[in-house]
């Protein structure tokens, strides 16, 4: 568990730092709001592909090798983005972001590796522990946008290559930690619940909660830095602060979300997630203040956390361990595909209808989560 928590700190740092820089780099290269959403789109698509591959390899190769390989791919991706910036090639930047998606998949799949270390009843708490650890690195990442950019410029490099150079280093250390320090959990038959094939709980409600939560969060948050720059605040420090507040909301309440799952059930927690996200999006659409937008992004992150923990619990509840790997991969692929749709749509929506249109569309999508959550069994 300590290795997994430390890996989440470093992986979360690299994920947040490079993710925050991606949209800014594309916008700087093209001066286009539509292009600014492309790095996040290909990143989440790469994350979905990596999760699908990982779910197939986790059983024959083990979590250790699978997660370490994903971190290695993310390291290579950050280096490719730097090369793309140096060559002024948006195609290379996007290719590197696709590989960086493997790092996102690693950070997210670690919660399931943590759940394997404990008993069935303690799974939500174990997942929450590594998600909370992610907060430390994920909050630090965006706040280093300005310092890492300045360091890159001092070496004669484009400023926004700095975040990707530091991201490459962090992912490389994460890879080493996972490969050398993680041991695959045993799979005692006594812990496998007796569920007959054909009687497994449906994956649809949990998958819907995970996918919609990620779609709304990615779409509305991706364009927040661009929205702030349009209003005249171009300081990377302020943008990084708002992103950090959002990330605190995404990961810090994990223990609270796990407690709610145990107290009111995963379905009830998912209903609450949809309500919180819808309210946050509506507030983001209504405010013109950067500070109020920061509060809305924090609330959006909290709603996403509620959806992530509850949706994960719904997805893997009462299924045998050998089935869980496939369910986990299905959930991550669903999150990735939904987020890719959100990332692809957010740029054109802002270009044609402004950020208000994007935020209101997010509110409508989030309002669907409670109805979809209650459409299945109540884990």
UniProtKB/TrEMBL annotation:
Pfam families, per the entry: MFS_1
GO cellular component terms attached to this protein's record: plasma membrane
Membrane-spanning ranges: 42-59, 66-87, 93-114, 126-144, 164-182, 203-223, 235-252, 264-285, 291-318, 330-350, 356-375
Keyword Transmembrane helix: yes
InterPro entries: MFS, MFS_dom, MFS_trans_sf
Compartments, record wording: Cell membrane
Alphabetized UniProt keyword annotations: Membrane, Transmembrane, Transmembrane helix
GO molecular function: transmembrane transporter activity
Major facilitator superfamily (MFS) profile domain span: 1-379
Top-level division of the source organism's lineage: Bacteria
Lipid bilayer topology: Multi-pass membrane protein
PROSITE patterns documented for this protein: MFS
Name of the protein described by the UniProt record: Tetracycline resistance protein
Species this chain originates from: Glycomyces algeriensis
